Amino acid sequence: MIVVVKLGTSVLTGGTQRLDRAHMVELVRQCAMLQKAGHKVVVVTSGAVAAGRELLGFPDLPADLPHKQMLAAIGQGQLVQLWQHLFGLYGLNVGQMLLTRADLEDRERYLNARDTLGTLLSHGVIPLINENDAVATNEIKVGDNDNLSARVAILAKAELLLLLTDQPGLFTADPRANPDAELIQEVKTIDATLHKLAGGSVSGLGTGGMATKLQAADVARRAGIAVVIASGHGVDVIGRLVAGERVGTRFSPIEDPLESRKQWILAGPPPVGRLQLDDGAVRALVDKGASLLPKGISAIHGRFERGDAVALLAPDGHKLGVGLVRYSAAELTAILGVHSDAISMALGFDRGAVAIHRDDLVLLG
Asked: Where does substrate bind (predicted)?
């Protein structure tokens, strides 16, 4: 089994301002036991900024992007060196991969990253993955390591994604404010009600909270990957979760996982525009598995080019899916509601009869 273990800053620091090296040793021990048992482990590690701040003696710095990138640049080497030393205690080698959203959006770079990750795993090396915070801007960032870990799980063709945090899992209410809040042990459907239960980052040390973990769980489970949100400080939590023990909140994978290209669409480029569909188009997509035709689009929002990802909206506004368009926003505007056989007349050319082919479309349902 390939297991992706995402370790948040709050897990690595224990809620303090310093990396908790004693606990990191324990996490490494658990990962080493998995490797020894025949599993393959990928670690998505936060903590570069915290490591950089610690190395500099906790200076009082502005909370702007250049200073965060400076701390990440200083701390990333320290963090990897520490992981390298700790895994080395168990005779394991590590390999660092720093990714940005751009690496996941471009099909060739996506495939290259997948090949590198697969090669590391085939040689028994523990991949250590983090976002390349030292150079990433808001335009090319995934934004948080929860969503990055879901995309890494897809890259690695993992069966299980563990999102380890400072909370025991997802609760029916905020357990810090409501003593009657109960742990949700299993989730089969992620809906609007569940999203309302998610809050922000508890510790203030990291970039993620329960909301980003739900997003990550939704992405991974659609690719057929089981996901668990659990406390990173539980006793032997990694081994217990891999063994199937009921710890934390487990998200069941969708039984019919998406094929490879659609996994890339779901995990890769975020939508840069929106297409409002009419009822007929929705029925054709959902009930018949059809492609999206220009005549089924009632409104266009945003600026996008051919090949960009766009969100598909039902008439009531809810997000129906994501797809890669074959026409730009300007071109689609010119053929809005036009029958496919009239595209060439309206544009003076055509790129095919469909606005989005069904092979380039993922329905969220």
From this structure: 46, 133, 145
